[in-house]
């Protein structure tokens, strides 16, 4: 089978059998889990890897000379190397463990704020921003990649600007080019929108931003789990994603950054584990990545995330992407045939991820979700932590069906059949 071909139904069924949670019934119906864009389920291999570590190797890392401490430290750093290889990093030192992607994005924003206050000395001067400078985001951002930049602007006096979206919630490189100027210091945007499924023109934006001397921060939460991600090839400066969206555990995220930038960025959190020397007057910090990992580290979570990465690598990320795009087309075609349903995001024929957000005329998104849930179909409803985007679209909320490696065509077809019944059920067709 070619590496870019969608998974066969037989392959998906085999994969699905690795996920114990998917074998259950919900409300008397087989579970069709279409909410992986919020949180992915975990295969037995990942659950077993974390349990095995906790049962045999668990100890504090980088702190002890006994056998378990050494085993634990090795497992922790091996996990870092595994993730670094997965995203095309130049080396493990470019991978920082965080609590989640939100934490990772805050680390960068508040690190820049600290640099702008004079912390970090000469090396950190490249990060300093203030009045007259600009931070650029898009109108489609998840709050995790909007609110930290709002705070950075408020703390430094810089101006926050945003790329507007079109009526379908998408934006283009041309839209961004009009706003990237010599005043732009940071450009932050999602690789893949968690609402529209749009795949951003990353390399074009990087070229525009770097030509003006601006840093590029990529929210990779909806791309790292679902398609090949090579941070060096993309050319971005920082990238963030979460473990729980890619078959891994809660409580761990990843910040990738170019080595020279991470070693110049002042730390956001301080305390133990990230220092070289401490006196009563001052402290000196370790090089990256340890300078950003204050306190007790998420060791078992890192081990489990590395196992999730190996699981995805075993499938092949090109095949993951192809499978989800195939399912997205199936959903788009099916929803297009249902009167009264409006899909947001790129139209059929334009590359997008395996998620589809939609509005049912006359029926609130929460009611849509509950109707589907009664039939064992799990979807997301709400503003998906993207209130400005929904406001621009003239919507309070949407429903979102999102796929992953364990999603079958049958899951999608059940969803489409149920979606076609919603307006009749709520009397919204009169």
Automatic annotation (TrEMBL):
Keywords (A to Z) from UniProt: Pyridoxal phosphate, Transferase
Short name of one Pfam family: Aminotran_5
Ranges of residues in domain Aminotransferase class V: 33-415
Cofactor(s) it depends on: pyridoxal 5'-phosphate
Organism superkingdom: Bacteria
Entry-linked PROSITE patterns: AA_TRANSFER_CLASS_5
GO molecular function: cysteine desulfurase activity
Reactions catalysed according to its record: (sulfur carrier)-H + L-cysteine = (sulfur carrier)-SH + L-alanine
Family: Belongs to the class-V pyridoxal-phosphate-dependent aminotransferase family. Csd subfamily.
Identification of the protein by name: Cysteine desulfurase
Taxonomic source organism: Curtobacterium citreum
């Amino acid at each position: 089978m070619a590496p870019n071909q969608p998974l066969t139904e037989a392959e998906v069924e085999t994969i699905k059998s690795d996920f114990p949670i998917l074998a259950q019934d919900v409300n008397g119906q087989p579970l069709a889990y279409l909410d992986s864009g919020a949180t992915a389920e975990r295969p037995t291999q990942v659950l077993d890897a974390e349990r095995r570590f906790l049962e045999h190797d668990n100890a504090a890392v980088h702190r002890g000379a006994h056998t378990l401490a050494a085993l634990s430290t090795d497992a922790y750093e091996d996990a870092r190397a595994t993730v670094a290889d997965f995203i095309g990093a130049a080396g493990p030192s470019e991978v920082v463990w965080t609590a989640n992607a939100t934490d990772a994005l805050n680390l960068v924003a508040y690190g820049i704020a600290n640099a702008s206050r004079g912390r970090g000395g000469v090396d950190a001067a490249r990060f300093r921003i203030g009045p007259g400078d600009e931070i650029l985001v898009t109108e489609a951002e998840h709050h995790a990649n909007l609110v930290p930049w709002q705070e950075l602007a408020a703390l430094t006096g810089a101006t926050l600007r945003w790329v507007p979206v079109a009526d379908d919630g998408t934006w283009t490189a041309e839209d961004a080019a009009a706003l990237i100027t010599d005043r732009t210091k940071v450009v932050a945007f999602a690789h893949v929108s968690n609402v529209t499924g749009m795949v951003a023109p990353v390399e074009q934006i990087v070229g525009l931003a770097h030509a003006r001397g601006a840093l590029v921060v990529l929210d990779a939460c909806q791309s790292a789990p679902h398609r090949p991600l090579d941070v060096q090839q993309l050319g971005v400066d920082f990238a963030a994603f979460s473990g729980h969206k890619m078959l891994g555990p809660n409580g761990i995220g990843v910040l990738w950054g170019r080595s020279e930038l991470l070693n110049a960025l002042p730390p956001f959190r301080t305390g133990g584990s990230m220092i070289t020397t401490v006196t009563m007057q001052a402290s000196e910090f370790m090089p990256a990545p340890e300078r950003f990992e204050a306190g007790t580290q998420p060791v078992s979570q890192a081990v489990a995330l590395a196992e999730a990465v190996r699981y995805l690598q075993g499938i092949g990320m090109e095949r993951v992407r192809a499978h989800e795009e195939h399912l997205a087309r199936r959903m788009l075609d099916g929803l297009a045939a249902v009167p009264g349903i409006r899909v947001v995001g790129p139209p059929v024929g334009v590359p997008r991820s395996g998620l589809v957000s939609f509005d049912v005329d006359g029926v609130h998104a929460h009611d849509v979700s509950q109707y589907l849930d009664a039939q064992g179909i799990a979807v997301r409803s709400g503003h998906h932590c993207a209130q400005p985007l929904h406001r621009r679209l003239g919507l309070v909320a949407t429903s979102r069906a999102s796929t992953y490696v364990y999603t079958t065509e049958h899951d999608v077809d059940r969803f489409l059949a149920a979606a076609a019944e919603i307006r009749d059920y709520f009397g919204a067709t009169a």
